[in-house]
Design goal:
Oligomer: single chain
Strand content: 5-15%
Shape: rod-shaped
Largest sheet: 4 strands, mixed
Number of helices: 4
Number of strands: 4
Helix content: 55-70%
Radius of gyration: 27 Å
Number of domains: 2
Distance between the termini: 20 Å
Order of helices and strands: EEHEHHHE
Length: 198
């Protein structure tokens, strides 16, 4: 499978559309041959998926996307073309759903970690105060109290990491999959002029 990416041309695609072009001998190469599902329901081939996703990440976020499959062997049947269009749409729509589920699970973990962290901070402050009162008048009491409090605030590191940094790349991935599930899919013969429909 040979893969290339080109900018959009005058081929009936939306204005400003970014094309991702894939060259294959036959459409079946775009699907995972190990997937036992019927042809229309198969997953994309991992290499084809990785290529499509990687190129889509490099393209403008505000531009519509199109996948152009250039087939070098016999012209694909209407059924194969329909299967490719439906397969690409369903595969990336499912990927978006899975990614959003992962995001919801991350927020659930973050909320639980935040509750545990806040409870630990409260308990650590109480214990620190008790120890400081037990050794009142000693420099060690203040040192122990501050050490416990600092350790307690470290317990909030994980929920803060989730809510400040970890969620937005996952949301960006889900949005990318949404764009990919909505992209137009065209199939052309290898001998067709560049940018023209069959």
């Amino acid at each position: 499978m040979d893969v290339t990416q080109r900018g959009a041309q005058d081929d009936g695609l939306p204005p400003g559309c970014e094309r991702i072009e894939v060259r294959v001998a036959e459409i079946r190469q775009l699907f995972n041959s190990m997937d036992p599902s019927p042809f229309r329901e198969r997953d994309l081939d991992p290499k084809a998926e990785a290529f499509i996703v990687d190129w889509a990440r490099e393209l403008r976020r505000d531009a519509p996307l199109a996948l152009v499959a250039r087939v070098s062997r016999d012209a694909p049947s209407a059924e194969e073309i329909g299967a490719l269009r439906e397969g690409v749409r369903e595969y990336f729509a499912h990927s978006a759903d899975v990614t959003r589920t992962r995001l919801r699970q991350l927020f659930r973990t973050g909320r639980l970690a935040l509750l545990i962290g806040l409870a630990f901070v409260a308990c650590a402050n109480l214990i620190g105060d008790l120890i400081a009162n037990m050794v009142a008048g000693s420099h060690y009491g203040r040192f122990v109290h501050e050490s416990i409090v600092i350790g307690a605030w470290v317990a909030l590191w994980r929920p803060l990491e989730i809510f400040l940094y970890e969620w937005w790349p996952i949301l960006g991935e889900a949005r990318l999959y949404d764009r990919l599930s909505a992209m137009q899919v065209q199939v052309v013969g290898a001998d067709a002029p560049e940018g023209l429909r069959p």
